[in-house]
Write a structure and sequence with these properties.
globular, 15 strands, seven-stranded mixed β-sheet, Rossmann fold, single chain, 491 residues, alpha/beta
Length: 491
């Protein structure tokens, strides 16, 4: 099953160019497009992945596709699906193994399933693919389909891998051995960081950092009235004043002590506009480190009970709140483990001391409207004193990039994707062991102790995101990468 994704209206390059701090990057992109545009005439670039919502890839593709179209590169976005219920659990296993986690034995006897689904997808897609088109396949799910299409049609084909690990173990070797025959037909591979590139494809790999759209609903600036409207409309804060806009049809749900979910203002207001708030937003994935972060926060709060509340620092600890937020796990089709991870986190929350439970909010964000979901994340991150990404493994970590762009100090793990972004002691802090609650507690304590230093880190983080991780440079690199393949085929 192949579905084309309709992309809503996006900001144009002229829109971006009205912002003085974005104009130089926009002009560089336009110069690159002018240089290479002729080579793409009569061709369609096909971007293929496994979901239209949830996760960094699905968030990056709409802006990437829109900007490619605007600069003259005809581009379509296709999403795969399958009736084979075991397929996405298999690709989730591969995902975990590429991150160095999981049981390698789970791949045994799955070659036939992967080949069957890949062949069915290739059959469904082949008629759409023109002889001069360019195929760009994202991550392991559609990898096999792209390999078969490359062998059948000979079109220029690129495999874009967004995940990986900076060292080898039994898990990564098993995953790469499983994928190797399917990677072999591709002309080029693209990785987020050099650390992730397996030796077998090192001679045909381009490095392209993921990037964010500074004017997307998740990242654009929010004036104070709009920020508070989003919080009120999404049930993230209560208000005694008449609302400017109607409440969202689907509001943020908050985990209650009995395991049920209710609007996030229950049993009391979150206080995100007033309390020092520590925020992590991610998919419900065991590798995102939610559980050790929650335990680290619990240990931080225990220090509060033993402290002298007369000091400003102790008062900040006393009022601090942890917000753990992610999408409704039932809404993400390519992540079948999300529900189980979410249930484990619920049980861990219910075992917290009641004093800590009151200061931890586990939020389920609605996915009925992707724009409203993005605005909710935007508002939460802007209200944060510290934005956290405590991943055990991380391909890149766009949630950290988003927090950096908003001028927030970042607490990140030492996972390689985050290490490439967050400079320890410059843009925030990094913990060496994402599974160590004591180190997390100590580091949070240090960050909460110095408001002026946190402000400086947030300023540095925004500058770094602006220089390195905005979408304009990403699009320029994609144009150059695809142009090289097109020219090579023509020659």
């Amino acid at each position: 099953m192949i579905d084309l994704v309709d992309i809503d209206a996006r900001p144009t390059l002229d829109d971006y160019g009205t912002y003085l701090h974005l104009r130089p990057a926009v002009e560089r992109l336009q110069e690159t497009a002018d240089q290479y545009r002729a080579a793409f005439e009569g061709r369609t670039v096909w971007m293929v992945n496994s979901t239209a919502e949830g996760g960094g890839v699905a968030e990056m593709l709409p802006t990437l596709v829109s900007l490619l179209r605007e600069v003259g590169v005809a581009t379509e976005w296709a999403v795969i699906g399958t009736e084979h219920e075991a397929f996405f659990p298999l690709t989730k296993t591969i995902h975990n193994l590429l991150h160095g986690a999981g049981d390698p034995a789970l791949l045994e006897d799955h070659e036939a399933l992967y080949a069957t689904v890949s062949r069915e997808l290739a059959d469904a897609f082949e008629d759409r693919l023109g002889p001069d088109d360019v195929l760009v396949v994202h991550d392991p799910q559609p990898l096999g389909m792209g390999a078969l299409l490359k062998e059948r049609t000979g079109v220029p084909a690129i495999w874009r891998c967004h995940i990986g690990l900076d060292y080898e173990n039994a898990q990564t070797r098993a995953a790469w051995d499983f994928l190797a025959p399917w990677i072999a037909p591709y002309d080029q591979t693209v990785f987020s960081l050099p650390d992730y590139v397996p030796q077998a494809v090192a001679d045909r790999t381009t490095i392209i950092n993921p990037a964010i759209d500074p004017l997307s609903p998740k990242n654009r600036g929010l004036q104070l009235q709009e920020l508070t409207s989003v919080l009120v409309d999404a049930a993230l804060t209560a208000s005694i004043h008449p609302p400017l806009t109607p409440p969202y049809d689907a509001v943020v749900k908050r985990l209650q002590t009995n395991g049920d979910f209710a609007p996030a203002t229950q049993p009391e207001d979150l206080g995100v506009l007033f309390r020092p708030t520590i925020v992590q937003v991610s998919r419900w994935d065991e590798l995102k480190g939610f559980a050790p972060l929650m335990e680290g926060f619990a240990r931080l709060k225990k220090r509060r009970w033993n402290g002298d509340r007369s000091t400003l620092h102790q008062r900040r600890l006393d009022l601090s709140r942890l917000v753990l937020a992610g999408p409704d796990p039932a809404s993400i089709q390519d992540d079948p483990e999300a529900q189980a991870v979410f249930q484990d986190l619920i049980r861990a929350y219910q075992h917290l001391h009641p004093h800590v439970q009151r200061d931890v909010a586990v939020l389920m964000l609605p996915m009925e409207s992707l724009v409203k979901n993005a605005l909710i994340v935007n508002a939460l991150q802007r209200c944060a004193l510290v934005v956290v990404q405590n991943s055990l493994r991380e391909g890149f970590g766009l949630t950290a990039t988003e927090g950096m762009w908003k001028g927030r100090p970042i607490l990140a793990s030492d996972a390689v994707g985050l290490r490439a972004q967050v400079r320890d002691g410059t843009d925030g802090r990094r913990v060496r062991e994402a599974t160590d609650p004591d180190e997390i507690a100590r580091t949070l304590d240090e960050m909460l102790s110095d408001a002026e230093l946190c402000e400086a880190w947030g300023h540095n983080a925004r500058n770094r995101a602006a220089e390195r991780f905005l979408v304009f440079e990403q699009v320029r690199q994609w144009i150059r990468c695809m142009h090289g393949l097109v020219e090579a085929r023509a020659a």
